[in-house]
Each structure stands twice: as C-alpha cells, then as structure tokens.
Amino acid sequence: MRQLTAVQAALRAEHAAVYGYGVVGGRIDEDRKDEARAAYDAHRARRDALRRTVRALGGEPEPAAAAYNLPFAVPDSAAAIRLAAHLEDRIAGVYADLVRAGEGARRREAADALREAAVRSARWRGDGVAFPGLAELGAAEAPASPSASPSGSTAPGVL
Asked: Cα–Cα 20 to 30 A to 83, which of 32, 33, 43, 108?
C-alpha cells in the first residue's frame, strides 16, 4: 500500500509537471524551446508509465486536474526557467519518496527519474544541489506553502 501511495504521488507530480511545462513552453525563449519540449516529452512518458504501474499495483490512476496553480507569475522567459527548475525540484522530491517506498526494478526506475530531474533542474538553474530530493523534503517539514510539498499530498491543482 505504501508503494501505491508513493506511485500515486509521483503520478500527481508528473501531471503537474506536464501542465507546468506547457506554461514553460509558451513563455521560454526560442533558444531553449527544444530543451523545454524534451522535458515535456520526458514527463509525459513518465506519467504514462506511472499510470500503468498504478494499475499493476491494483489501483486506479488519479486523473490530472483541469488546471494547476502556479507557484508564481510566469510573464517571461526568465520566470519560465525558474518554473522549470521548480518543477524538477518537486519531481525530485516525489521520486526520493518513491525510492524509499519502492523495491527492485521500481526503486531503480525511481532513482533514474530522480537523477534525470536533478540533471534537468541543474541545467535550468545553472547549478545543482548536493542531495536532490532531500532539500525539498526538508522544506516540506518547515512551514511552507502547499506548493512546496514534494510528496504530492497537496490538493489537486497545486504545483
């Protein structure tokens, strides 16, 4: 059950990332559009794989929300880059949870997704963090807005 909960949280985060990258793609400068498109495609593929995993674990995949609240306004390319980094940091947090809850191949897949999110975050931000996924967990323990929660346990519609 714990594994299904973590997979559903990752699915919710991937739904939000797909939505968020739609916003990023609409605001990002032309020279980074290919990077945004590649990230969008990667998150769609992970989302689809997670839907299959939820079914394999005996659950019903949670649907995407109709819309998501952005953590800040995204009026230009600089804000789009910040949003992309935010999305990847959040994804890293939920995959860190899934690494802890998973076993065998599922744990390896979660670790791969965590690594990919950390690399994308570093590319968007221009630098990285020492322990991707852990910084987000620490932020979730401190009083913070719902969008800071890496576990995906916030209400639907919050990035």
From this structure: 108
